[in-house]
Amino acid sequence: MHSVLAAVALASSVVPAVLAQGVPLASKHFTWGALPYQADTDTGERGTQYGYNLCNSTTEGPTSLCQTAIINSIDDFCLWGPPEKDSLIGNVEGESVAWCTKPGYGTRIIPKGAITGVQFMKTPDYIQVTGRITQNLINIQADDSGGELDPHGADQRGNPLGGLLFSNAFTGQFVQAVEWHNFMGGGTFCLKACDPAGPNAARFCEHIFDRIGCAYNAPAAYEDGAFLSCEGANQDFPGIYTDAAGAVQTYTQPPESLGPISTMPYQPRVPASSNCVTHDVATLWSGAPTASVAPASSSASGTLTRTTSRAVSTTRASTAGSSATGTPNGASSRAVLSLGSLVGAALVAFVAL
After folding, report:
1. pLDDT tens figures, 44-62
2. Structural domain contains residue 16
3. What span is annotated as the signal peptide, if there is one (predicted)?
4. What is the mean pLDDT of residues 173-200?
5. Amino acid 22: pLDDT
C-alpha cells in the first residue's frame, strides 16, 4: 500500500512537468534567414510537427509541407490550408501548410481564380487580408464551414504545430509576427498579423473567439470582385463592443457543449478605411498556376503517414454568426489535455516498476 501511495505522490509531481514541457510557440522568436528546420521540436498528444519551416526552391510546389507563411501586401501573402485534398480544416488545423499568392517562399501556390475578392488593410497596430475564396482549390472541402488557426492552441504548440508568420510591412524588413489569427471556411478567409512592436498585439489578434469567425474577429466587407489595398483605422478588440446605451461591453463565447451560437448580442463595427487602391486581378498574381484541385501531399522521401492527429479539434466547425454576417467560419471548441490520463499513465509506469 505504501508503495502505491508513493507512486501516486511521484506521479503527481511528474504531471506539472509534463504539462509545462516545451516552450509555447508564441514565446519562440526567430529571425528570417536563420530559421530552424522545425520550430516545434516537442512530442506530445499531437505528435511531432507535420512539416518544416526551412523552405526554399527545392520545397516549393503542390506537395510542399512548408509551414512558414508571410503577409506583406495584397499581391504577396499566404493562407493556411490542408496538405491533402477534400479536407475539413478543423480536422487538420494542426498540420496545415502555407499556400501563398506568389512563388519564391518554398510553399504551395494559390492557383489563379481561387481568390475571388480581397482587401489588404494596414492599420496602426496590424495588417490584415480578408476576402472570398473558392476553397476547394486549396484542399478545403467545398462545403466546410471552417475553423481558426493561430499560434496558440490548447497545448500552446500552435495550429498548425510550429506554424510561423513573417512580414516586411511593419519595418521594411522581415520580422516575425508572433501574434496572428487566420480563419478559413465558408468561402471566406481572413488573416491578421499584429505588429510585434505594438502594445496590444495579443488583443487585436485574440485567439479565444474561435466559434464566431471572420466577421467578428476581422470585420471587413468580404466582397466578391473587389481587389483593394487600403489604409485603415484599428478595429475594436475582438469581443469588445459598445451597446445601444453607449456602454462598453465584453462578449463571452459560450462553450460548444451548449450547442450552436444562433444569435449574437452585437454586430461588429467595420473600421473606416482610406486611401484605397483598386487592383486589376489579371495582373495581381501573375506567377500563380492554373486552377485545379490540388493533389494529396507527400514528403520528399515518400508518402507521409500520419499516426497521430495534430488537430486539437476533430469535429466539423459550427456556423456561428453566419446568418447575420455571411461569413460562417467559426471553429468548434478545442479539446484540452486530460490531467486524469496523464496521472493514469504515470501510475501505470510507476506500478510497472
Report:
1. 899 999 999 999 999 999 9
2. no
3. 1-20
4. 99
5. 85
CA distance 273 to 121: 8
Give the strands of the sheet with 227-232, arranged side by side.
Answer: 147-149, 180-185, 188-194, 126-133, 115-122, 227-232, 273-278
- Residue 77 has, within 13 A of its CA and on its CB side, a CA count of 26
Residue 248's domain comprises: 23-352
Q: Which residues of 92-117 are buried (b: 16+ CB within 10 A; e: fewer)?
A: bbbbbbbbbbbbebbbbbbbbebbbb
- The count of structural domains within the chain is 1
Provide the grid cell at 274: 482610406
In a domain, 18, yes or no: no
**Contact by Cβ (8 Å): 125, 158:** no
pTM: predicted TM-score of the whole model, two decimal places: 0.81
Decide if 319 is inside a domain.
yes
What confidence score (pLDDT) does residue 291 get? Answer: 79
Is the pLDDT confidence value at 26 over 80? yes
Cα–Cα dist 20/86, whole Å: 35
Residue from 207, 234, 231, 229 nearest 219 by CA: 234
- Give the CB-side neighbour count of residue 327, counting CA atoms within 13 A: 29
Mean pLDDT, the chain, integer: 84
Model confidence pLDDT, tens digit, residues 188-241: 999 999 999 999 999 999 999 999 999 999 999 999 999 999 999 999 999 999
Amino acid present at 298: S
**How many whole angstroms separate alpha carbon 106 and alpha carbon 341?**
39
Q: Are 39 and 30 in contact (CB under 8 A)?
A: yes
Residues 6+ apart with CB under 8 A from 147: 88, 89, 90, 93, 183, 184, 185, 210, 313, 317, 329, 330, 331, 332
Q: Is the peptide bond before 124 cis (omega within 30 degrees of 0)?
A: no
Q: What are phi and psi of 150, to 5 degrees?
A: -165, 170
Tell me, yes or no, whether 137 lies in a domain: yes
Beta strands 164-167 and 68-73 are: parallel
